[in-house]
Every structure is written in structure tokens, then in C-alpha cells.
Amino acid sequence: MLTADVAATIHAVDTRHFHKQLDDAMLRLLGDSGVVVCAISGGADSMALLHGLLRVRELRKRDWTLHVAHLDHGIPHNSREMMAFVESTAVAAGVAFHGDFVDVPTLSRETGESIEETGRKARYSFLEGVCADVGADALAVAHHADDQAETILHRVLRGTGLNGLSGIPESRLLSGDSRVQLIRPMLGFRRSDCAAYLERRALAYMHDDTNDDVLAATRNRIRHDVMPTIEREINPQVVTAMVRLGALAKQASEVIDALAREAYARCCVECSPDEIHFDAELLAGERELTRMQVVGMAIDRLDRGRGDVGFERLQAASRVIVGDKPIAVAELAAGVRVTRRGRFAIVSHSASSLSPSADVESARVQ
Q1: Which of 155, 159, 362, 162 minimizes the C-alpha distance to 260?
Q2: What would be the CATH architecture of the domain defined by 4-245?
Q3: How far apart are CA 223 and CA 61, in angstroms?
Q4: Nearest-5° angle of CA 80, CA 86, CA 92?
Q5: Cβ-contact 49, 79 below 8 angstroms
């Protein structure tokens, strides 16, 4: 049995390690100063983030101006109590609190979207508004290594490419027209680390029972059924393995992106707001994955977004580029098409890329 002195020493070492790891992540993602909105649900993960940032700011003399933001979704039976708990924690710590309520179940019924997706959109709309109001440099959320592993496995089961296999990024812009960085300084921690940190410091948190319903969301079933079964019966280090796979996929994706950028520069012969022309013969000489990525980059350049253009559609575009038909077209999504016309491969979102009288082989993908 541990003596009180030994137990206190272990407690201090573990807590210092938590603070150091969190501080290292914040310095990497933000620096030693800035305005940070912390998305706090009241659960163990987000409370560990909040209390950890408060303590690190004090210990390391960081110039972080912290704000706490909480959206009541109206879903858990105790959602009002959770908001009150988060607000009282923020007030006690001397941190500005920003709260709001959205009736997500009603909104979900009105829009026809799932409660999970409706809640996500409502939450980020609220958080983006708070960031704009306070002039935030960053929005900090409490996703950790277990979330990362669950996300990667979820995407594998649904079907994903390398980008999806990379998991959730440590940092990205909050939205396309925002300067605010969405940061995840807790990705290096396990869920158990967060709970242990709060226990060591005797800090309170609340339980959100919507995360327990395995019938309500696939993610919950992966969290409570699938991952524990894999850990127990197949690989006790499955979280580490999935996180490592995500990191390797991210590196591979970056290599492919670099090759695709080089191919794009070599093969692009003309660019306008509506159309991008490539030398089809040069582009056909690239590997299929590079061709597909070049087409994706062209869609991005046309500012049409790749959200609805999946693997099969990009593969259809690649087949059109290397095909032996003098004129062929692949219809992608959102009005985007890839046309092979003679020596040119044209990525466009206007009808001008096809002549009404052209003998077109359609490569449409439904």
C-alpha cells in the first residue's frame, strides 16, 4: 500500500505531466498569447481542458484570454443543470461565460436531418458566433485520442479515402471565411487521462447520458460496444494502433498532395473562373491517384467544394482523361464536369465545355 507521501508525489508528477503536455500542445497550436473560446459541455473531457488551461495559464504565465461557451441542445434530461454547472464553474474561475439554447430535437424534425447532425451544426454555428463576438484567435475543443480512434474506425466502416483515414486534424480554420483556428490540444490524451486528472485535483464534472444510448448514434455504439470488444478480445492497444494509422495516412496524403501539386503545375495550360484546361496526354501519364487528386484540386480552385465528389466520381473522371474517345464527359456533382476534348481535359462548372452537337460518351456516375 502506498504511503501518503509516495501517493502525493505520484499525484504531483502525473498532474505536472498533464500540464506540460497540454502546454506543449497549446504553444504549438496558438503560442503563449491569444484569445481562446473553450467549448465546454460539462463532461469530463471538456472540464479537464478548461481546468488544465486555467492551471497552465497560472503556472506558466501564459497570456491567454479564456472564454467559456456552452450550448444547451435540449437533449439530455439534465441539460439545464449542465448549463448552470458550466456557467457557475466559469464564474468561479473569473472567466467570461457565453451560453445559448437551441431546441435540437424540434429543429431535427423540421429539417429532416438526424439529431446528431442537427446538433453539430447548431453547436458550431453558436461557437462561431461567440468567436466573432469576442475577437477570438482560436476555438479549443476537447477531442482526445479515443475520439480520434473512434472517428477513424467509423470512417473505415462507412468507406473513406486517405484524407478521411487521417482522422480529425489537430488544427484547422473554423470555416472557410474565418481567421479563427479550431484547435484540439487534447488529442495526445486518452479519455482515461482526462478523468484521472479531474480525480487527482478533486474537480467536478457532469455526465451527459445521451452519449450512452447506442441506438441513438453509430458513434456511441462504436464507443461503448465495438472499441471495448476489440480492446478486450483482439488488441488492447487498438486506440494507439488507430491513432498511429491516422498519422501515417496523414503523411501519405501529404505526399500525394505534393505530387498532385507538381502534376497540376506541369499539366495545366489555361485557367479561368469557370474552366481549367489540362494537357490530357500529360495528365493521362500520371498515376491514377495523382490524376484524381489533380481533378479534386481543380474543383477546389473553381470554388465548388469536394463534399459531394467521392472516390467513384473522381475515378470516373480519371477514366475519361485516359480514354481513347476524342470527346467524353464525366458528370461529377454540383454542376461540375470533366470533359476530354481532343488533347485537352477540361474541369468546369459551366455548360460551355460541351458542344450541343458533340458526339459525347457520358461517364455519369449516379
Answers
A1: 162
A2: 3-Layer(aba) Sandwich (3.40)
A3: 37
A4: 130
A5: no
Q: Across the strands, what pairs with 279?
A: 344
Place of cell 488488441: 235
Residue burial 113-130, b: 16+ Cβ < 10 Å; e: rest: eebbebbeebbbebbbeb
Sequence-ordered strand ranges (E) for the chain: 33-39, 63-72, 96-101, 138-140, 171-173, 181-183, 268-271, 275-279, 327-331, 337-341, 344-348, 361-362
Distance CA 184, CA 171 (A): 6
Q: How far apart are CA 355 and CA 248, in angstroms?
A: 45
Taking the domains of the chain in order of start, what are their residue ranges? Answer: 4-245, 272-362
**20: its cell numbers:** 506540460
Q: State how far the Cα of 324 lies from the Cα of 345, in Å rounded to an integer.
A: 12
Averages of pLDDT over runs of 10 residues in the chain (366 residues) are 42 81 98 98 97 98 98 86 97 98 92 88 96 98 97 91 91 91 97 95 86 63 94 96 96 94 96 93 95 93 70 90 88 86 88 43 38
Tell me the pTM.
0.82
The yes-or-no answer to whether 4-245 and 272-362 have a common fold is no
Topology of domain 272-362, CATH: 3.30.465
Please count the CA atoms within 13 angstroms of the CA of 74 that sit on its side-chain side: 12
